[in-house]
Amino acid sequence: MQVDVATLSETGRRRPPLPVWLLLGLALAVRVVVALADRNIRLVDDPADYHRLAVSLAHHHSFGPSVLAAGGGPTAFRPPLYPLFLGAVYAVAGVSVGAALVAQAVLGVVVVALVGILGWQLWGRRAGLVALGLAAVYPPLILVGGSLLSESVALPLELGVLAAVLEARRTGRHVTRWAAVAGVLLGLAVLARPTNGVLAVPLALLLWGRPLLARRTLAPLAAAAGLAVVVVVPWTIRNTEAFDRVVLVSTSNSFVVGGVYNRTADHDSRHPALWRPPTAVPGLAPLFHDPTLDEAELAKRVDDAGRRYIRAHPGYLARSVFWNGARLFDLTGPDQALDAARPLGYGRTAADVWLAGYALGAVLAVIGVAVGALRGTPRAFWLTALLFVAVTIPTLGTSRYRAPVEPFILLLAAFTITHLINRRAGATGHE
């Protein structure tokens, strides 16, 4: 499916057609209904901690003390952007989970719009409209946005980076300007979820043209990299001053490593290699009662313990990747989807809808690859999805952590549907 750039550029100057506004309205309505539904939400696990930080920011303009270190002290466990977003909502609307979820519903519509834009950039107007429609009603995106989770902020930033670099590549105009936009969004994306740092790879590959070392080729890369660093560095400086050691964005990954790579997780016959709080690991629990350890030192000790376990049991790394990969893509059965949905305030029905929506999207995505979705599109764009999987499955494997990959599933599914529509239109002589 080849698309003429001039035609796309001309199309891009027009106002969005009525179906676009209708689908965006549908996306907002569905998300607001989920946000305001009486689900008896209990704030536990990650949502509870984000809520705590947001209340502290709204009332005291600080992140509050660490709840991990026995002696309290500063915290960098959570990347800062989502707590800041949530705190801003609480500061304006009062401490209201409902208000936060409605604000996230708006961000969810931004995600829907960006999925549509990416479909249009890759394959044209029809594919963009199909992608927009699928994203509007896709259960995994709706349900992840219906709880207090950082994905609500991280996803639109991820897609914004990709849309900006594709626009620079597609039009060949204002490349440095679009690269600068992508760089700012990349920095913010890292402050939302550090794993978004993998976006630097496709960003560089998509922007870097020929001749490789020419000034006009390197300028966009320099603009993107420089602005991304400028966005992230203030938080790194804050962490370094607070802990007297360099903490780039967050201490959370260290606790993730320690929570997966330990004897308890290794020998769990029911949920092998599934992350658990390090406080539930006998060999690590005493560290959390030592008042001399601040959060950064505690994170280092936990991380070191996890890495020592990997070196002592190298085969367990492969088993962890296998099991977390299976859970990430819901290959271990419907109960796993329910286990992932419960902490977010959802029951069996929502989990089944989540799983069914994903399964249908995945089947259509596989068909899309088979019928040529990747042909004529930048390989670096699709590499993004593989990178997200690669940095996730060694440690985390639940339906929630598939969120950065869901837009790629939707885009491939949209190609499949568009391909079928085009074939039918060709067979009947109508376009």
Concise summary:
With 431 residues, the chain is mainly α.
Shape: globular
Q: Tell me the radius of gyration.
A: 22 Å
First-to-last CA distance: 14 Å
Order of helix and strand elements from N to C terminus = HHHHHHHHHHHHHHHHHHH
Class from helix and strand fractions: mainly alpha
- Strand fraction equals under 5%
Low-confidence stretches: 1-12
Q: How does this structure look, described?
A:
- This protein has helices at 5-12, 18-36, 45-60, 81-93, 97-123, 125-137, 139-144, 151-171, 175-192, 200-207, 215-243, 252-260, 263-266, 295-312, 314-328, 334-341, 348-370, 379-392, 406-428.
- The chain is globular.
- The chain has 431 residues and is mainly α.
- Helix 10 packs antiparallel against helix 11 and helix 10 (200-207) runs antiparallel to helix 18 (379-392).
- The model is unreliable at 1-12 (pLDDT under 50).
Sum up the structure in keywords.
mainly alpha; single chain; 19 helices; 431 residues; globular
Write the layout of secondary structure elements.
Elements: H1 5-12, H2 18-36, H3 45-60, H4 81-93, H5 97-123, H6 125-137, H7 139-144, H8 151-171, H9 175-192, H10 200-207, H11 215-243, H12 252-260, H13 263-266, H14 295-312, H15 314-328, H16 334-341, H17 348-370, H18 379-392, H19 406-428
Helix pairs in contact: 2-5, 2-6, 3-4, 4-5, 5-6, 5-8, 5-19, 6-19, 8-9, 8-10, 9-11, 10-11, 10-18, 12-14, 14-15, 16-17, 17-19
